[in-house]
């Protein structure tokens, strides 16, 4: 009887283990599948001309240059606003804020900000930046909208990175006659930088791939020239993809997939950069 | 010999109810090793952290009394704590090399104090590493990360880092608790030399170390100063029953 039970236990163990392994593999499949599928379908569309020329024939031919440049502008614009603000907020929360009702409220707000659907950000941006502040449908308004959406990601990852710097470094630094701010500048930020950068890149990557927040705030259906100032509207990869997939009849399918591929590569490149930064910093870390 | 530090009726309580101090009064001699010993939670570390105002980083519920260094009350809110911490250096229980090279660890405090001249910095690196009895072991690899050193070497670099600021008082909070006997011996040896130049306050990691190093010794129990005397007398003929019990290993 005991023997049988023991054997059963082993069997249960093996089944459980196999099941968990299977689930882990299953989660990877959609990612690998998507990438391969898009690569297969869109690879043939990629050419120098596709990357460096304007669309023509009602976007059914030509390239996607303005969308690439637009996404680049939006990403940079988002970085300009969200990175300093996000890091400053993270420093405040990690290094200065005591556990008071005010800080608890701030944290709660950040968590909730992360949960808001992106289309709501879009409407908010339309109301505040486009209409009330009269920035118009522009790179500026879209970047600000994307910044608000990106902030929670940057703040929470940066705060996490700052907190992971050992407390003793701060104590020692202060015991050697450093002020709190000198300690943050010279030790804490320096050590947390790779973690912060990772968070920043992941946040910006999300911003680069979003459609809904720029839909009402800065994205244009088609523009015959590149944007000249932050107050111009712009084409952008995710919105362009949406447009050519749903709004243009008789669209050649490989252009759609080619566009998707470019967006995917853009986002994955950022992801890889983040991963490299993180692993190189881990290897060099002195604690 | 004069009292470098006078502690006058010092009481303190942390907000989390941990260690506290109750009505401590004592004078601490210049150019001597004063040892604060007793069981854990007795208030030794708390007292050390009052002397360089490192307790400012902690949540304190109540505090009262005065600490006079060279006649000035350092607990006064107007005290320049940055200058105080340069004058009163501290070595911690576990060596904490900052994440930089050996050299940078030594010059860190000086650079914060505004010293930029390379010659001055180099001079201080050599002088303080020699004082901490570690120069010969690290002189050829000053640009290596400090974390690459052994625990005992790290702790002497941490000591040198404090010495580079040319303090007047050095606080040592169980500086050898993580070290092997040989490294411990080296640190204790360094202390013998250092007391000629500095006022040293040491929380030892054992009664034996207290007996080996103390010019003066203070026995702390549950936040109170039980007995304070010359080291020789304290460890041979203690006056208080509690002190004797502790030294003889009957409790603690």
Please, could you describe this protein's structure?
- By secondary structure, chain A is mainly α.
- Chain A has a domain at about 70-235: Orthogonal Bundle (MetI-like fold).
- Chain A is about 75% helix and about 0% strand.
- Chain A is built from 11 helices and 2 strands; from the N terminus they run H-H-E-E-H-H-H-H-H-H-H-H-H.
- Chain A has helices at about 1-40, 50, 65-95, 100-115, 120-130, 140-165, 165-175, 180-210, 210-215, 235-245, 255-285; strands spanning about 55, 60.
- In chain A, strands 1-2 form a two-stranded antiparallel sheet.
- In chain A, a hairpin with a 4-residue loop joins strand 1 (about 55) and strand 2.
- Chain B is of the alpha/beta class and about 250 residues long.
- Chain B has a single domain, classed as Rossmann fold.
- The longest helix of chain B is centred in the middle third of the chain and has 14 residues, at about 120-130.
- Chain B is globular.
- The mean pLDDT of chain B is about 90.
- The interface of A and B includes residues 178, 182 and 187 of A.
Q: Summarize the amount of helix of chain B as a percent range.
A: 25-40%
Question: Rg of chain A to the nearest angstrom?
Answer: 24 Å
Q: Find the structural class of chain A using helix and strand composition.
A: mainly alpha
Total DSSP E strands of chain B: 10
**CATH architecture descriptor text of chain B:** 3-Layer(aba) Sandwich
| CA-CA gap between termini of chain B | 33 Å
The separation of the N and C termini of chain A measures 53 Å
Strand order of the largest sheet of chain A: 1-2
For this structure, what is the CATH homologous superfamily of chain B? P-loop containing nucleotide triphosphate hydrolases
Shape of chain B: globular
Short description:
Chain A is an all-alpha fold.
Descriptive terms for the model:
A: 287 residues; MetI-like fold; two-stranded antiparallel ribbon; 76% helix; B: 252 residues; alpha/beta; Rossmann fold
